[in-house]
Design brief:
The chain has 50 residues and is mostly helical. The protein has 1 helix and no strands. The longest helix is centred in the middle third of the chain and has 10 residues. It starts with 20 loop residues before the first helix and ends in a 20-residue tail after the last helix.
């Protein structure tokens, strides 16, 4: 089974472009994706992850 990751930039920053987590989950679920999960983790530099 394939797994997909959506990296969203510039939403919910500084009170602009607000999208609720619930709305994101509903949107991806309605598009046919199952087991939709969200996180607030930020990776600043991928090359330092071992």
């Amino acid at each position: 089974m394939a797994k997909y990751v959506a990296l969203l930039r510039g939403i919910n920053v500084g009170g602009k472009n607000l999208i609720s987590v619930t709305s994101l989950v509903e949107c991806f679920s309605a598009a046919g994706y199952g087991d939709v999960r969200t996180t607030n983790r930020l990776l600043e530099r991928l090359d330092t992850v071992s």
